[in-house]
Structure formats: C-alpha cells, structure tokens
Specification:
The protein is of the alpha+beta class and 388 residues long. The protein has 12 helices and 7 strands. It folds into 3 domains: 125 residues, no CATH class; 74 residues, Signal transduction histidine kinase, dimerisation/phosphotransfer (DHp) domain (Helix Hairpins); 148 residues, Histidine kinase-like ATPase, C-terminal domain (Heat Shock Protein 90), CATH 3.30.565.10. The strands form 2 sheets. The protein has a 5-stranded mixed beta sheet. The chain has a two-stranded antiparallel ribbon with strand order 1-3.
Length: 388
C-alpha cells in the first residue's frame, strides 16, 4: 500500500501538470470535433446524392453523354466502390489529423530537448539565463531551473574548493622551506663548529628538533589533503563507553593545553554507552578540541559537556577566543577553508579539512554539527541520534 507521503507527492505532481493536461484535453476534443464535422460533410455530400448529381452532370457536359449513359458510367466507376472510396477518404482524414496532433504534441519534446541542451552546456550561445518553456510546462521549467542553479552552484563550489586546495598546497610548499632550511642550517653549524659548548649544542639540537617536528606536521597536512580527495568514509559501528572516550581525549591533549596554560572542564555523565564508529567519532572530537586549543586565549578554560537524552546525545565544546563573524561561521565547515587566512602556517594552522571531515562523519551518523559565536565564546554543538 502507498503511504501518505507518496500519495501527497503524486497528488502534487498531478496538480502541477494540470495546465498541460487541460490543454491536451481541449486539443484532443477539438480534433475529434473537426473529424466529426468533416465526416458529416462528406456523408452529406456523398451519400445524399449531391456528389452523384454533380458527377453525372459533369459526365454529360464533358463526355457528351445522355443522362442514362452518364448515370450508368457513374455507377460502374464510383457507386460500386463507394465503401472503398469512403474508407480511403476517412483513413486519409484520420492520418492527416493525427499528423497535426502528433506534430503539436512533439513540439513539447523538441522544446524540452533544446532546453536540456542548454542545461548540459551543448548550446554555448544560449547557455546563460533562465530556462524558459511554454506556460503549460511551467512545472518542468521550474524543476529544470532548480537543477540548472544547483549544477552551477556545485560547479562554482568545486572550482572554489579546487582553488583553495591549490593555494593551500602552494602555501604549504612555501612553508616547508622555512623549517627545512633551519634544520639544515643548525645541523651544518653543529658539524662545522668543532669547539661548540655543550649548552649551545643542546640549544641547537632543541631548535632543530622543533623545526623537524613542524616539518612533519606540514607533510602530514599534505597526506591529509590526498586522503580526503582519494577516500570515501565508511562507518564501522560498535557500542562504546562515550564518557571514557572524552576523558581519554582530554588526557592526550595535556601537553598542548599546558603550552597555553589552558584548563578543560569536562562535564559528562558516568558510563554513557553509545553506538557509533569509535575511530571516526574520536577524530571528530579530536578536531574540535584541537581547534579550541589553537584559537583559545591563553589562561582560559575549555568547556566540554555531554548530555544523553532519550533520542539523542548532545556534545558541546566551548572556548574563549576572538569572535567569529556570521559570514565566517557559515563557511567554517567548508573543505580547505581556514579561519586564519594568514599565508604562513607557522602558527600551527591546519589544512582547513578538520571541520569539513568532522561534519561529514557526523552527517554519516545521521547527526548534525553547528557552530555559534557570542561575544568571545565560541561553541560547537554535535547532536547524534541514539540507535536502538
């Protein structure tokens, strides 16, 4: 049986095409009435004898026959084949009217085909502008324009994303030179300076190690870009202790938190059991906490809460940092978009993929992720449905 949604959808389609249905009905009735009128006139002309009188008179005048001879000739040539002639005439009229009817009807398909060519970019001269069809095809015109706008937006987004990716790769390639040059420079100093003090040697080694670690981070960002483009995310569900996952995450971020003297307030119920892809979900919260650390003011608190409701699990990450404008908030989850648009990644900025991947993972779990900024508090909210 059809559900209510399917019935309403079919009813909406039926109403959308009411205009063309009415026009087809009127045209069909008009052609039928025309055919009836033609057949009636033919019947009056042939059957009622007017055609016979005309032909007999014609034979008398043109062939110089008397009335009886002309009538006899008419009967032999026409009257005996009256049904055949009537059938041929009716068939000819029917085919002629059918040709007109199909020609009128096929005009719609020709019109749609031409506009489909514009939609697919085959007609470059008329590609710009809205698609326009006959008034009775307004429903199809509306859907084709929606598809056209969607395709144009997808193409624009794809080109913009590709540009961001290419720019980012260029920036990362440029930034690779700085730590690499530093590592080489300090290693050359260590090699060439034979009588360098132990304290200075230790300092050079620490600097070289820091630059090498930064170099590793940049290389990992290259791999992150390649992974995002080449792989599709699939989920492997398992039942996990969600409270322990967040506690472990906070513990692992201890060194990063200490660098900016940040503290974490974790407010979560004990032993929340939840079904999800543990590895992917850990990546989501890792990205959120990493962003909170990177963009938090020094000596502030990051607040993490998890609330289990009847049908959903709601997790919030909030931190104190520079306010984010509404325009930037709307673009936070775009791939390759970075909140810090500075050229250099020396500050530890990421490739602009973390939040985009986080959103994809959350949506694959049929959840949502949102961000808001009020005063100097930035809050991310992840809502995940509970699976029975």
């Amino acid at each position: 049986m059809k559900n209510k949604k399917t019935i309403f959808h079919e009813k909406g389609i039926y109403q959308e095409f009411g205009q063309i249905r009415t026009k087809i009905f009127i045209r069909t009735v008009g052609l039928c009435l025309t055919a009836v009128l033609i057949f009636f006139l033919v019947y009056r002309f042939f059957v009622r004898g007017k055609f016979a009188d005309f032909m007999v008179s014609f034979f008398q005048s043109s062939l110089r026959m008397d009335y009886d001879a002309a009538l006899n000739f008419y009967q032999q040539a026409f009257r005996n084949y009256e049904k055949l002639f009537c059938f041929i005439f009716i068939a000819a009229v029917f085919l002629f009217l059918l040709h007109i009817y199909l020609g009128w009807f096929s005009r719609y398909f020709t019109e749609i085909d031409r506009q489909m060519g514009r939609l697919l970019g085959e007609d470059t001269e008329e590609k710009a502008g809205e698609i326009s069809l006959s008034p009775e095809l307004i429903a199809i015109e509306r859907k084709m324009n929606q598809l056209k706008y969607r395709m144009e937006k997808q193409k624009s987004d794809m080109l913009l994303s590709e540009k961001r990716k290419n720019d980012l790769i260029m920036y990362l390639a440029h930034d690779l030179k700085t730590p690499l040059a530093s590592v080489i420079g300090y290693l050359n100093l260590l090699r060439d300076e034979g009588e360098i003090s132990g304290e200075l040697r230790e300092k050079y080694l620490d600097i070289s190690l820091g630059k090498a670690e930064r170099l590793e981070e940049l290389i990992n960002e290259f791999f992150e870009i390649a992974r995002y483009n080449l792989s599709d995310i699939t989920l492997q569900y398992s039942r996990i202790n969600f409270s322990r996952l967040l506690e472990q995450l906070v513990y692992e971020f201890g060194p990063m938190l200490a660098e900016k003297n940040l503290t974490v307030s974790l407010q979560v119920e004990e032993d929340i059991l939840f079904s999800c892809d543990a590895d992917k979900m850990q990546r989501v919260f890792d990205n959120l906490l990493r962003n909170a650390v990177l963009y938090s003011f020094r000596d502030t608190e990051i607040r993490i809460t998890a609330e289990q409701q009847k049908y959903a699990l709601i997790v919030r990450f909030s931190n104190h940092g520079n306010p984010i404008s509404k325009e930037k908030l709307e673009r936070l989850f775009e791939q390759f978009y970075r909140l810090d648009t500075a050229r250099s990644t020396e500050s530890g900025g990421c490739a602009g993929l973390g939040l985009a991947i986080a959103k994809q993972i959350v949506e694959l779990h049929n959840g949502t992720i949102t961000a808001k900024s009020e005063a100097e508090v930035i809050e991310f909210t992840v809502t995940l449905p509970v699976i029975s």
